[in-house]
Amino acid sequence: MRSRRWILVLGIALVVVVALASRAFLSKGADDVKFRTEPVSRGSLVSSVTATGTVNPVKTVQVGTYVSGPVQAIDVDFNSPVKQGQRVAKIDPRPFQLRVDQAEAALTNARAHVDKARADLRYKQTNLGRTRALAAEGIVSKDTLDTTASDVDQARAEVALQEAALKQSAAQLEEARVNLSYTDIVSPVDGVIVSRNIDVGQTVAASFQTPTLFLIAEDLTKMQVNANVSEADIGTVADGQRATFTVDAFPERTFEGTVVQTRNAPQNVQNVITYDVVIGADNEDLALRPGMTANIVLETGRRDEALRVPTAALRFRPPADTRDGNTGAKESAREGAAGGDGGTPHPGASPGAHVRRADRASAGDKTDHSGRVWVLDNGDPQPVRITTGLSDDQYTEVVDGPVKAGDPVIVAVDRPQERAATTAAQPPGFVARPGGGRRR
């Protein structure tokens, strides 16, 4: 009897010890959950679109040839400055000079025919006068008078025919002279020779398509960048926006420009649709060269001294074991009434999705751009609804909401046990950074 009593007492004591130990363990696990916060701040926000493009002169002139023949001389080379009307090359002019000589001879012949026709007309007009006088006295017949008058008319027509032939010969001479002048290849603008595609002795043929002999850039101090912007980002790009870009030749230097034209013609490359955006840039030191590849950042929106929260706070969701029942019920009710997440991306969504929505808000989109951040209330995370605006990679603008500068918002959960396990699992030589990630 006594042994049974002792067994019962020991069993009760064991149950009490296990219950107390479990409670202590669970309370310790809850206490180990800590939240990492960052303050709401004020500062500049810049949304941007990245693209690649090619640096080109603002105006490039292709100089070709209208006539065919061997190249007799080249007066310029690469990078040579030229003036408008300056000769840059010459095609052998001898065949065209012969045509000019032939046209001049034909013109002289035509002038002689005109003089002959005019002399014949004067003679027949004189003969007509005598015939009319004789006919008035009845010496010649009426038929003779009519024949003489017809001869005058024919002579007058012959004069007109020869004069037309004279004009035709003059036009042929002018054509021959123009073709002769085309043997001198001249620059149509002031600029710099970008490329030369011919050599002395090379024969150029301009039968069906004019060959390009030179490429002349009119002004290399003014350049333009032809950027290829994807169709997902073209909606936020507009004329007059600021742009910055870098080139591989000067990786540490940032060039500035302005969007001068957004072209509507789509470009389809392997089912990827892009649009050409022209960016004007100054090039006073001639550092930019035609054909350079530019990495471009288009500034699609800017806010100065904007109230902003870390973008990570909008993506944060507290773990289930850190929420009380009332918080979860209220949150579910709010989300159900709002018809979803209120425009805030779920934890698995990419940061760019929220950035694109904020960009559309800055571009005039009238849709709802509400978001949600979490704050601590007596150690428990509580949701706070805000209206978001412009966003970049780190911060998002707060257009409306109950938060103010300096308020801490939760950006991550910091569990010591998980951090210790993560640190133990890392390879030797790595240490954890306070803000996440690893460094050697």
What does this structure look like?
The chain has helices at residues 2-32, 94-136, 142-181, 311-315, 325-338, 351-362, 416-425, and strands spanning 34-39, 41-57, 60-64, 69-74, 81-82, 87-91, 184-186, 191-196, 203-204, 212-217, 222-230, 242-247, 250-269, 272-282, 293-310, 370-377, 380-391, 395-400, 408-414, 431-432, 438-439. It is an alpha+beta fold. β16 (370-377) and β17 (380-391) form a beta hairpin. The longest helix has 43 residues, at 94-136.
Taking the sheet with the most strands, its summary is: 6 strands, antiparallel, barrel
Low-pLDDT runs: 325-368, 418-440
> Total number of β-strand segments?
21
Structural class: alpha+beta
Spatial sequence of strands, sheet with the most strands? 2-11-14-13-12-15
Shape: rod-shaped
Task: State the share of residues found in helices, binned by percent.
Answer: 25-40%
